UniProtKB/TrEMBL annotation:
PROSITE patterns: PROKAR_LIPOPROTEIN (PS51257). InterPro entries: DctP_fam, TRAP_DctP, TRAP_DctP_sf. The lineage of its organism: Bacteria, Pseudomonadati, Pseudomonadota, Betaproteobacteria, Burkholderiales. Keywords: Signal. The keyword Transcription does not apply. This is TRAP transporter substrate-binding protein. Residues 1-25 form the signal peptide.
Length: 326
Protein backbone atom coordinates (compact mmCIF):
# COMPACT_ATOMS: atom_id res chain seq x y z
CA UNK A 1 0.00 0.00 0.00
CA UNK A 2 2.73 2.37 1.08
CA UNK A 3 4.76 1.54 -2.04
CA UNK A 4 1.81 2.11 -4.25
CA UNK A 5 1.21 5.52 -2.70
CA UNK A 6 4.85 6.42 -3.36
CA UNK A 7 4.51 5.33 -6.94
CA UNK A 8 1.38 7.39 -7.42
CA UNK A 9 3.13 10.40 -5.94
CA UNK A 10 6.16 9.85 -8.14
CA UNK A 11 3.89 9.65 -11.16
CA UNK A 12 2.06 12.82 -10.27
CA UNK A 13 5.37 14.65 -9.80
CA UNK A 14 6.61 13.35 -13.12
CA UNK A 15 3.43 14.59 -14.75
CA UNK A 16 3.72 18.07 -13.30
CA UNK A 17 7.42 18.30 -14.16
CA UNK A 18 6.42 17.27 -17.66
CA UNK A 19 3.73 19.93 -17.78
CA UNK A 20 6.36 22.53 -16.88
CA UNK A 21 8.39 21.81 -20.02
CA UNK A 22 7.87 24.59 -22.58
CA UNK A 23 5.39 23.85 -25.33
CA UNK A 24 8.19 23.92 -27.88
CA UNK A 25 9.82 20.85 -26.28
CA UNK A 26 10.23 18.07 -28.79
CA UNK A 27 8.75 14.98 -27.20
CA UNK A 28 5.73 14.02 -25.15
CA UNK A 29 5.55 10.74 -23.25
CA UNK A 30 2.04 9.49 -22.64
CA UNK A 31 1.69 7.44 -19.49
CA UNK A 32 -0.81 4.62 -19.92
CA UNK A 33 -2.29 2.59 -17.07
CA UNK A 34 -3.82 -0.87 -16.92
CA UNK A 35 -4.58 -3.15 -13.98
CA UNK A 36 -3.69 -6.20 -16.06
CA UNK A 37 -0.17 -7.58 -16.26
CA UNK A 38 2.28 -7.22 -19.13
CA UNK A 39 1.33 -9.51 -22.00
CA UNK A 40 -2.44 -9.23 -21.40
CA UNK A 41 -4.25 -8.43 -24.71
CA UNK A 42 -5.32 -4.94 -23.62
CA UNK A 43 -1.83 -4.03 -22.49
CA UNK A 44 -0.28 -5.29 -25.72
CA UNK A 45 -2.80 -3.44 -27.91
CA UNK A 46 -2.15 -0.11 -26.14
CA UNK A 47 1.61 -0.64 -26.34
CA UNK A 48 1.27 -1.21 -30.07
CA UNK A 49 -0.85 1.91 -30.41
CA UNK A 50 2.05 3.75 -28.74
CA UNK A 51 4.61 2.26 -31.14
CA UNK A 52 2.53 3.36 -34.14
CA UNK A 53 2.18 6.87 -32.72
CA UNK A 54 5.89 7.09 -32.10
CA UNK A 55 6.68 6.04 -35.68
CA UNK A 56 4.05 8.28 -37.26
CA UNK A 57 5.14 11.35 -35.26
CA UNK A 58 8.86 10.57 -35.78
CA UNK A 59 9.37 10.15 -32.05
CA UNK A 60 7.54 13.28 -30.93
CA UNK A 61 4.84 11.28 -29.12
CA UNK A 62 5.86 8.23 -27.14
CA UNK A 63 3.88 5.99 -24.84
CA UNK A 64 4.95 4.29 -21.65
CA UNK A 65 2.74 1.54 -20.30
CA UNK A 66 2.36 0.98 -16.54
CA UNK A 67 0.66 -2.43 -16.28
CA UNK A 68 -0.28 -4.50 -13.23
CA UNK A 69 -2.16 -1.75 -11.41
CA UNK A 70 1.03 0.05 -10.29
CA UNK A 71 -0.62 3.44 -10.84
CA UNK A 72 -3.53 2.51 -8.58
CA UNK A 73 -7.01 1.03 -8.78
CA UNK A 74 -9.16 1.79 -11.81
CA UNK A 75 -11.09 4.33 -9.75
CA UNK A 76 -7.83 6.11 -8.87
CA UNK A 77 -6.61 5.84 -12.46
CA UNK A 78 -9.80 7.50 -13.73
CA UNK A 79 -9.32 10.35 -11.27
CA UNK A 80 -5.68 10.82 -12.23
CA UNK A 81 -6.60 10.78 -15.91
CA UNK A 82 -9.25 13.42 -15.34
CA UNK A 83 -6.62 15.79 -13.94
CA UNK A 84 -4.04 14.89 -16.57
CA UNK A 85 -1.58 13.05 -14.31
CA UNK A 86 -2.15 9.89 -16.38
CA UNK A 87 -2.69 10.37 -20.09
CA UNK A 88 -4.28 7.09 -21.23
CA UNK A 89 -6.39 4.82 -19.05
CA UNK A 90 -7.64 1.42 -20.08
CA UNK A 91 -10.46 0.56 -17.72
CA UNK A 92 -13.68 -1.38 -17.56
CA UNK A 93 -16.80 0.55 -18.52
CA UNK A 94 -18.13 -0.79 -15.23
CA UNK A 95 -15.89 1.55 -13.28
CA UNK A 96 -16.72 4.50 -15.55
CA UNK A 97 -20.45 4.21 -14.77
CA UNK A 98 -20.36 6.30 -11.59
CA UNK A 99 -18.43 9.03 -13.50
CA UNK A 100 -20.36 8.97 -16.80
CA UNK A 101 -23.80 7.45 -16.03
CA UNK A 102 -24.64 7.17 -19.75
CA UNK A 103 -22.28 4.19 -20.09
CA UNK A 104 -24.37 2.17 -17.63
CA UNK A 105 -26.57 1.04 -20.49
CA UNK A 106 -23.75 -1.40 -21.38
CA UNK A 107 -23.24 -2.31 -17.71
CA UNK A 108 -26.62 -3.89 -17.18
CA UNK A 109 -26.92 -7.62 -16.56
CA UNK A 110 -27.82 -9.59 -19.71
CA UNK A 111 -28.20 -6.45 -21.84
CA UNK A 112 -26.36 -8.24 -24.67
CA UNK A 113 -27.49 -11.65 -25.93
CA UNK A 114 -23.90 -12.81 -26.33
CA UNK A 115 -20.43 -11.50 -27.13
CA UNK A 116 -21.08 -11.35 -30.88
CA UNK A 117 -24.07 -9.11 -30.18
CA UNK A 118 -21.95 -6.86 -27.94
CA UNK A 119 -19.29 -6.53 -30.67
CA UNK A 120 -21.87 -5.57 -33.30
CA UNK A 121 -23.26 -2.91 -30.99
CA UNK A 122 -19.93 -1.35 -30.00
CA UNK A 123 -18.62 -1.39 -33.58
CA UNK A 124 -21.73 0.36 -34.89
CA UNK A 125 -23.55 3.67 -34.37
CA UNK A 126 -24.64 2.93 -30.78
CA UNK A 127 -21.03 2.28 -29.78
CA UNK A 128 -20.00 5.55 -31.42
CA UNK A 129 -22.79 7.43 -29.62
CA UNK A 130 -21.62 6.21 -26.24
CA UNK A 131 -18.02 7.21 -27.03
CA UNK A 132 -19.27 10.69 -27.95
CA UNK A 133 -21.31 10.88 -24.75
CA UNK A 134 -18.20 10.13 -22.69
CA UNK A 135 -16.17 12.74 -24.56
CA UNK A 136 -18.92 15.36 -24.31
CA UNK A 137 -19.61 14.68 -20.62
CA UNK A 138 -18.07 16.89 -17.93
CA UNK A 139 -15.67 14.03 -17.05
CA UNK A 140 -12.70 15.57 -18.91
CA UNK A 141 -11.99 12.31 -20.72
CA UNK A 142 -11.78 11.67 -24.45
CA UNK A 143 -13.08 8.21 -25.34
CA UNK A 144 -10.71 6.55 -27.81
CA UNK A 145 -12.11 3.06 -28.26
CA UNK A 146 -13.43 -0.17 -26.81
CA UNK A 147 -11.87 -3.49 -26.04
CA UNK A 148 -13.27 -6.92 -25.47
CA UNK A 149 -13.65 -8.38 -22.03
CA UNK A 150 -15.75 -11.40 -22.94
CA UNK A 151 -18.39 -12.50 -20.46
CA UNK A 152 -18.20 -12.34 -16.72
CA UNK A 153 -19.14 -15.48 -14.82
CA UNK A 154 -19.09 -16.49 -11.17
CA UNK A 155 -16.25 -18.24 -9.37
CA UNK A 156 -16.63 -19.59 -5.92
CA UNK A 157 -15.32 -22.06 -3.35
CA UNK A 158 -18.68 -23.88 -3.17
CA UNK A 159 -20.53 -24.96 -6.33
CA UNK A 160 -23.24 -22.62 -7.65
CA UNK A 161 -25.87 -23.87 -10.08
CA UNK A 162 -28.85 -21.66 -9.33
CA UNK A 163 -29.53 -18.35 -7.56
CA UNK A 164 -30.42 -20.12 -4.29
CA UNK A 165 -26.88 -21.54 -4.11
CA UNK A 166 -25.55 -17.99 -3.72
CA UNK A 167 -27.47 -17.39 -0.50
CA UNK A 168 -25.17 -15.97 2.18
CA UNK A 169 -22.15 -15.86 -0.15
CA UNK A 170 -20.18 -12.63 -0.29
CA UNK A 171 -19.31 -11.99 -3.91
CA UNK A 172 -16.96 -9.24 -5.01
CA UNK A 173 -18.24 -6.88 -7.69
CA UNK A 174 -16.68 -3.87 -9.42
CA UNK A 175 -17.22 -0.45 -7.84
CA UNK A 176 -20.60 0.58 -9.23
CA UNK A 177 -23.89 0.31 -7.26
CA UNK A 178 -25.48 -1.31 -10.32
CA UNK A 179 -23.26 -4.38 -9.86
CA UNK A 180 -23.90 -4.71 -6.13
CA UNK A 181 -27.64 -4.63 -6.93
CA UNK A 182 -27.04 -7.20 -9.67
CA UNK A 183 -25.34 -9.63 -7.30
CA UNK A 184 -27.96 -9.12 -4.61
CA UNK A 185 -30.66 -9.85 -7.21
CA UNK A 186 -28.77 -12.97 -8.33
CA UNK A 187 -29.03 -14.31 -4.78
CA UNK A 188 -25.67 -13.42 -3.20
CA UNK A 189 -24.32 -10.48 -1.22
CA UNK A 190 -22.51 -8.06 -3.52
CA UNK A 191 -19.37 -6.41 -2.09
CA UNK A 192 -17.60 -3.78 -4.14
CA UNK A 193 -13.81 -3.67 -4.19
CA UNK A 194 -10.94 -2.79 -6.54
CA UNK A 195 -9.51 -5.50 -8.77
CA UNK A 196 -6.07 -5.76 -7.17
CA UNK A 197 -7.59 -6.38 -3.73
CA UNK A 198 -9.68 -9.36 -4.79
CA UNK A 199 -6.96 -11.99 -4.59
CA UNK A 200 -6.13 -11.15 -0.96
CA UNK A 201 -9.80 -10.95 -0.02
CA UNK A 202 -10.43 -14.40 -1.48
CA UNK A 203 -7.38 -15.82 0.26
CA UNK A 204 -8.34 -14.51 3.68
CA UNK A 205 -12.01 -15.42 3.28
CA UNK A 206 -13.25 -11.80 3.40
CA UNK A 207 -15.24 -12.80 0.31
CA UNK A 208 -16.46 -16.20 -0.88
CA UNK A 209 -16.19 -15.56 -4.58
CA UNK A 210 -16.10 -13.07 -7.41
CA UNK A 211 -16.97 -12.87 -11.08
CA UNK A 212 -14.87 -12.21 -14.14
CA UNK A 213 -13.69 -13.63 -17.47
CA UNK A 214 -11.25 -16.58 -17.74
CA UNK A 215 -8.12 -14.52 -18.64
CA UNK A 216 -8.58 -12.27 -15.59
CA UNK A 217 -9.40 -15.19 -13.29
CA UNK A 218 -6.14 -16.84 -14.31
CA UNK A 219 -3.70 -13.93 -14.66
CA UNK A 220 -4.75 -12.37 -11.33
CA UNK A 221 -4.03 -15.71 -9.60
CA UNK A 222 -7.50 -15.61 -8.10
CA UNK A 223 -8.11 -19.08 -9.52
CA UNK A 224 -5.79 -20.56 -6.87
CA UNK A 225 -8.35 -19.65 -4.19
CA UNK A 226 -11.54 -21.06 -5.78
CA UNK A 227 -12.81 -24.34 -7.16
CA UNK A 228 -15.83 -23.65 -9.40
CA UNK A 229 -16.49 -21.42 -12.41
CA UNK A 230 -20.22 -21.20 -13.07
CA UNK A 231 -20.95 -19.93 -16.56
CA UNK A 232 -23.66 -17.41 -15.79
CA UNK A 233 -22.33 -14.90 -18.39
CA UNK A 234 -24.36 -12.29 -16.52
CA UNK A 235 -22.30 -9.28 -17.58
CA UNK A 236 -20.77 -8.65 -21.00
CA UNK A 237 -19.05 -5.35 -20.37
CA UNK A 238 -16.80 -3.79 -22.96
CA UNK A 239 -13.54 -2.26 -21.83
CA UNK A 240 -12.80 1.32 -22.75
CA UNK A 241 -9.66 3.35 -23.22
CA UNK A 242 -9.72 7.08 -22.72
CA UNK A 243 -7.30 9.97 -22.95
CA UNK A 244 -7.11 12.84 -20.53
CA UNK A 245 -8.80 15.89 -22.04
CA UNK A 246 -5.87 17.93 -20.71
CA UNK A 247 -3.54 15.93 -22.96
CA UNK A 248 -5.93 15.75 -25.92
CA UNK A 249 -6.26 19.54 -26.03
CA UNK A 250 -2.47 19.87 -26.31
CA UNK A 251 -2.32 17.68 -29.44
CA UNK A 252 -2.55 19.18 -32.92
CA UNK A 253 -5.52 18.26 -35.13
CA UNK A 254 -3.27 15.90 -37.11
CA UNK A 255 -2.02 14.22 -33.97
CA UNK A 256 -5.57 13.81 -32.69
CA UNK A 257 -6.51 12.18 -35.99
CA UNK A 258 -3.59 9.76 -35.65
CA UNK A 259 -4.62 8.88 -32.10
CA UNK A 260 -8.17 8.19 -33.31
CA UNK A 261 -7.01 6.06 -36.23
CA UNK A 262 -4.61 3.95 -34.16
CA UNK A 263 -7.23 3.62 -31.43
CA UNK A 264 -9.69 2.00 -33.81
CA UNK A 265 -6.89 -0.32 -34.93
CA UNK A 266 -6.10 -1.12 -31.28
CA UNK A 267 -9.76 -2.00 -30.74
CA UNK A 268 -9.62 -4.51 -33.58
CA UNK A 269 -6.16 -5.86 -32.72
CA UNK A 270 -7.12 -6.51 -29.10
CA UNK A 271 -10.09 -8.54 -30.26
CA UNK A 272 -7.92 -11.05 -32.07
CA UNK A 273 -5.59 -11.32 -29.09
CA UNK A 274 -8.59 -11.59 -26.79
CA UNK A 275 -10.11 -14.61 -28.52
CA UNK A 276 -6.80 -16.47 -28.32
CA UNK A 277 -6.40 -15.50 -24.71
CA UNK A 278 -9.86 -16.78 -23.69
CA UNK A 279 -9.12 -20.14 -25.32
CA UNK A 280 -5.67 -20.34 -23.72
CA UNK A 281 -6.75 -19.40 -20.20
CA UNK A 282 -9.87 -21.54 -20.25
CA UNK A 283 -7.55 -24.48 -20.95
CA UNK A 284 -5.17 -23.43 -18.19
CA UNK A 285 -7.97 -23.05 -15.66
CA UNK A 286 -9.26 -26.53 -16.49
CA UNK A 287 -5.76 -27.95 -16.27
CA UNK A 288 -5.39 -26.31 -12.85
CA UNK A 289 -8.49 -28.20 -11.64
CA UNK A 290 -11.13 -25.47 -11.84
CA UNK A 291 -14.46 -27.14 -12.47
CA UNK A 292 -16.54 -25.37 -15.14
CA UNK A 293 -20.28 -25.53 -14.42
CA UNK A 294 -22.41 -25.04 -17.50
CA UNK A 295 -25.66 -24.00 -15.92
CA UNK A 296 -29.04 -22.76 -17.12
CA UNK A 297 -28.71 -18.95 -17.14
CA UNK A 298 -32.46 -18.27 -17.31
CA UNK A 299 -33.03 -18.19 -13.51
CA UNK A 300 -30.20 -15.61 -13.23
CA UNK A 301 -31.67 -13.62 -16.12
CA UNK A 302 -35.11 -13.63 -14.49
CA UNK A 303 -33.71 -12.75 -11.07
CA UNK A 304 -32.00 -9.64 -12.47
CA UNK A 305 -35.12 -8.24 -14.20
CA UNK A 306 -35.66 -5.69 -11.38
CA UNK A 307 -32.10 -4.37 -11.93
CA UNK A 308 -32.79 -3.81 -15.63
CA UNK A 309 -36.08 -2.17 -14.69
CA UNK A 310 -34.47 0.12 -12.10
CA UNK A 311 -31.39 1.21 -14.05
CA UNK A 312 -32.72 0.67 -17.55
CA UNK A 313 -35.79 2.92 -17.32
CA UNK A 314 -33.75 5.94 -18.42
CA UNK A 315 -32.29 3.94 -21.34
CA UNK A 316 -35.52 2.35 -22.57
CA UNK A 317 -35.15 3.54 -26.21
CA UNK A 318 -31.49 2.71 -26.36
CA UNK A 319 -32.07 -0.75 -24.91
CA UNK A 320 -34.64 -1.41 -27.58
CA UNK A 321 -32.18 -0.31 -30.26
CA UNK A 322 -29.54 -2.59 -28.71
CA UNK A 323 -31.95 -5.54 -28.73
CA UNK A 324 -32.78 -4.78 -32.37
CA UNK A 325 -29.14 -5.15 -33.45
CA UNK A 326 -29.09 -8.56 -35.08
C1 LIG B 1 -11.48 -7.18 -15.78
C2 LIG B 1 -11.33 -5.88 -16.51
C3 LIG B 1 -10.68 -4.84 -15.64
C4 LIG B 1 -11.39 -4.72 -14.32
C5 LIG B 1 -11.54 -6.08 -13.68
C6 LIG B 1 -12.34 -6.01 -12.39
O1 LIG B 1 -10.54 -6.07 -17.65
O2 LIG B 1 -10.66 -3.62 -16.32
O3 LIG B 1 -10.68 -3.94 -13.44
O4 LIG B 1 -12.17 -6.98 -14.57
O5 LIG B 1 -13.11 -6.91 -12.14
O6 LIG B 1 -12.18 -8.09 -16.59
O7 LIG B 1 -12.17 -5.05 -11.64
Amino acid sequence: MQNRRHLIQATLCAAFACAAIPAAAQTVTLKAADVHPAGYPNVVAIENLGKKLETATKGKIKLQMFPGGVLGSEKEVVEQTQVGAIQIARISLGVLGPVVPDVNVFNMPFVFRDEAHMRKVIDGPIGEEILTKITNSPARLVALGYMDSGSRSLYTKKPVRKPEDLKGQKIRMMGNPLFVDTMNAMGGNGISMGHTEVFGALQTGVIDGAENNPPTLYTSNQYTTVKYYTQTNHLIIPEIFVMSKVTWDKLSKDEQALVKKFSREAQMEQRGLWDKSVAEYTQKLKAAGIEFINTDTKPFYDATAPVRAKYGAQFADLMKRIADVK
